[in-house]
């Protein structure tokens, strides 16, 4: 994902993506993905060094809480890093549980 802009809004950090390519969609629909905005709760004053240079591609993980998408992790997309490659392989094959499968 490429990031278009980062703003401060009501004590949160608002991240507006420019280009998005989902690795795993989970419960999010493609329609929601088009107008996706991520929030870093209480992160307006957080010194996130990952967001200093917005020209890179990022791997972004998040979850939906009360209609808002919260940022849980962000990492610079680095194909040369061996640990990153191993993580990506595991992410692609890992089956994420859904609430329906957990509570059945």
Automatic annotation (TrEMBL):
Domain of life: Eukaryota
Protein keywords: Developmental protein, Differentiation, Disulfide bond, Glycoprotein, Secreted, Wnt signaling pathway
One annotated GO biological process: regulation of multicellular organismal development
Keyword Secreted: yes
The NTR domain, residue ranges: 1-96
Organism: Camelus dromedarius (Dromedary)
Function recorded in the entry: Soluble frizzled-related proteins (sFRPS) function as modulators of Wnt signaling through direct interaction with Wnts. They have a role in regulating cell growth and differentiation in specific cell types. SFRP1 decreases intracellular beta-catenin levels. Has antiproliferative effects on vascular cells, in vitro and in vivo, and can induce, in vivo, an angiogenic response. In vascular cell cycle, delays the G1 phase and entry into the S phase. In kidney development, inhibits tubule formation and bud growth in metanephroi. Inhibits WNT1/WNT4-mediated TCF-dependent transcription.
SMART domains hit by this protein: C345C
Protein name (Swiss-Prot/TrEMBL): Secreted frizzled-related protein 1
